[in-house]
Design goal:
The structure holds 2 protein chains of 2 kinds. Chain A is built from 13 helices and 12 strands. By secondary structure, chain A is α/β, with parallel strands linked by helices. Chain B is mainly alpha-helical. In chain B, strand 1 and strand 2 form a beta hairpin. In chain B, helix 4 runs antiparallel to helix 10. The chains are: A alpha/beta, B mainly alpha. The interface between A and B is large, with 35 and 36 residues.
């Protein structure tokens, strides 16, 4: 990854040479790895058009990014799980969270011959709780009358390390299942049931590979990974009772139905809307409310503006969700408070 | 010394002179310097180890104070509740390393015998040796991926059969669900193979040729010579190879993190997912909060202690068996 970052840096530096007369500003950010592909594409393109502003982003993980922001070693951070009140208190001048893009978490499965598997709202939490252990369970069969469900044990593949993806999934499960709320709860890493049929793999790629290699496996990954690796993912029943597939309009519907509070922290734990995809999430960039250097503040605003306008155009292609118009307007309003 | 730059006859004279000349100041300085340098090198190793233990110990101290021995004997790892226990990880570390040592040890030592005892023409043996040593150059991540995509599907039919027919035996007590102890141990065995094979080869090659000739001279067959004479003579070196291999297995990280299944449970079953200390550390460090860092450091300290104990036990066994041999 280092040479890759260096490449971005070099490319943006070279493209800035004609503008050398103007002031150069270099912004440093760190944090979530889930939006890293789209962020690096944005920053590379932004560096070419920005008259001397370059952005370096390091995908260290949401927690590490927030820590860097609190320690003031970066200019901005990125996080999949937002920021807690305690963390926000640790930054004296205050912080501004801004949703920049959004994504879906899918339940990828490996059942030869079974496509478009439907999972009801009471079934998938039970799977992750280890209560439903066979694929031919009557509850799964009832939702999939035409599918030939095998008599296979369900192997749950989870993330081995602390992860924003786990946060998004558990946040949703927490909203739909009381039993989940009383048990593992919400977090970047939770106490999963102990069983021979629960295995953990590192990173999105690790979970994807393990699901692909294991018959009867189900795991949660970002939609972009499922799309890339071509693994089947389940249609999930949303709040309105509809079964929705990831990757269609469902994600955008869920975002459009969202009403953002002033601090922009909104977790779509169980989105409204008839055709919303249930496990949808914003991912945030976190900025200081006040920058000591006015040039830096200007650069930050320029970057935000680029991401909200030009940046959104490539979202769908990269497997992310473009922010709906109303959300972009809200975010712009909030961004105006940074100086 | 101006003579050196002069013509040839004089040159010879100076060369003859220098043989019997007293050591020059430069010789003194070089000699002293070298002695200091080696002493410093030796000291540096000790200081480095001490510094590492000091640093890890210092950071682990809050964790040790908070969790005490519970940390080593409990089995839950729950970041949210602040309950941390590494018994399953200790169990998994020892179990997987031991399995790997048994498999890798048998293959490594037999490979060393095969390559040193004239079974192959020398050139072919050299090629084989290079190939085995190449195994050491493969990155851990590649082993992990190879494990997921090749080893797991390969052993699955056998694992399923064993579980279905011999499921009452605890070793086959659960069905293989992809990652688990056996695939991890198999990959680990291949990873320690180059170490075990290379060091054992050196040990076997150090046995004087005369010993072998003497054994043949007494009318032994090839196998008797190898098993009764050569292996006992190279015993120390081979044992050292196994200890080194075990140490390598204990500390292996990335391949195991991908293959072991990272499940906090203690099970005898070869097909059940497990956890290891090194995998636990590698996976949790990048996003560890202030609450987790001390306990992870504590876990690192435990891993360090296990490695140390294994090495001490290794040398103790070795010196004991040497004494036994001497008495006979």
């Amino acid at each position: 990854m280092k040479p890759f970052l260096l490449g971005i840096l070099l490319a943006s530096t070279i493209s800035c040479l004609p503008a050398a007369a103007q002031d150069k500003v270099r912004l440093i950010g760190s944090g979530a790895s889930f939006p890293f592909p789209i962020y690096s594409a944005w920053f590379k393109a932004f560096g070419k058009t920005s008259d001397g502003v370059t952005v370096d982003y390091q995908a260290k993980g949401s927690g590490a990014g927030i820590q860097d922001l609190i320690n003031k070693t970066v200019d901005f951070a990125a996080s999949d799980s937002g920021m807690t009140d305690d963390q926000m208190k640790k930054v004296p001048g205050g912080v501004q969270l801004l949703p920049m893009t959004a994504g879906e978490v899918v339940l990828a499965y490996n059942l030869p011959g079974v496509t478009n598997l439907r999972l009801p709202r009471d079934v998938y939490p039970a799977i992750f709780l280890g209560k439903i252990t066979k694929w031919n369970d009557p509850k799964i069969a009832a939702a999939n009358p035409s599918a030939k469900l095998p008599d296979l044990p369900i192997t749950v593949v989870r993330r081995a390390e602390s992860s924003g993806t786990t946060f998004v999934l558990t946040n949703h499960l927490n909203a739909v299942s009381d039993e989940w709320k009383k048990g593992p709860g919400v977090g970047n890493s939770v106490n999963w049931p102990t069983s021979d049929k629960f295995v953990a793999a590192p990173k999105n790629d690790g979970v994807t590979a393990t699901v692909k290699q294991t018959k009867g496996a189900i795991g949660y990954i970002e939609y972009s990974y499922a799309k890339l690796a071509k693994v089947e993912n389940a249609h999930l029943q949303n709040r309105a009772g509809q079964y929705v597939a990831a990757g269609g309009q469902g994600g955008e519907q869920a975002l459009a139905a969202a009403k953002l509070p002033p601090d922009m922290r909104l977790w779509l734990s169980d989105p409204d809307g008839a055709s919303s995809y249930p496990i949808t999430t914003f991912t945030w960039m976190v900025f200081y409310k006040k920058y000591d250097d006015p040039k830096k503040a200007a650069a930050v605003k320029k970057m935000i503006d680029y991401c909200l306008s030009e940046g959104q155009k490539i979202s769908t292609k990269m497997g992310y969700l473009p922010l709906p118009e109303n959300v972009v307007a809200e975010v712009r309003k909030a961004a105006a408070g940074i100086n | 010394m101006p003579e050196i730059a002069s013509t040839q006859p004089l040159d010879q004279g100076s060369a003859a002179n220098s043989i019997s000349a007293p050591p020059s100041t430069f010789d003194y300085v070089a000699d002293r310097g070298f002695r200091w340098l080696s002493a410093a090198g030796a000291a540096l190793i000790l200081i480095l180890v001490a510094a590492i233990v000091w640093e890890i110990g210092g950071k682990a101290l809050p964790g040790i104070q908070e969790h005490g021995l519970d940390f080593i004997t409990s089995t839950t790892w729950d970041v949210k509740e602040g309950r941390f226990g590494i018994l399953p990880a200790i169990w998994g570390t020892l179990y997987s390393s031991l399995l790997a040592l048994i498999i890798g040890g048998i293959f490594g030592v037999s490979m060393a015998i095969f390559l040193t005892q004239d079974f192959l023409p020398p050139q072919l043996a050299a090629i084989f040796r290079t190939i085995v040593e190449l195994l050491a150059a493969i990155p851990s991540v590649v082993y992990g991926l190879w494990g997921i995509f090749v080893v797991v599907p390969t052993i699955r039919p056998a694992a399923d059969w064993l579980h279905e027919t011999l499921g009452v035996i605890p070793f086959f007590g659960s069905s293989l669900s992809g990652p688990g102890l056996l695939p991890a141990a198999l990959v680990l065995a291949i990873m320690i193979l180059p170490t075990v094979a290379a060091v054992s080869q050196d040990a076997l090659r150090l046995v004087p040729y005369k010993v072998k000739e003497a054994a043949y001279g007494m009318g032994t067959t090839r196998w008797e010579a190898i098993l009764r004479v050569l292996l006992p003579a190279a015993r120390n070196g081979i044992f050292g190879a196994l200890v080194l291999g075990f140490g390598r297995a204990l500390g292996e990280t990335m391949a195991l993190a991908m293959l072991i299944g990272n499940s906090n449970q203690i099970s005898l079953s070869l097909f059940a997912p497990a956890n290891t200390l090194a995998a636990l550390l590698a996976l949790n460090f990048p996003e560890a909060g202030p609450r987790e860092v001390p306990v992870l450091m504590y876990a690192a300290l435990v891993l360090l202690a296990i490695t140390l104990l294994v090495n001490i036990a290794g040398s103790a066994i070795m010196s004991y068996s040497n004494r036994q041999g001497a008495v006979k």
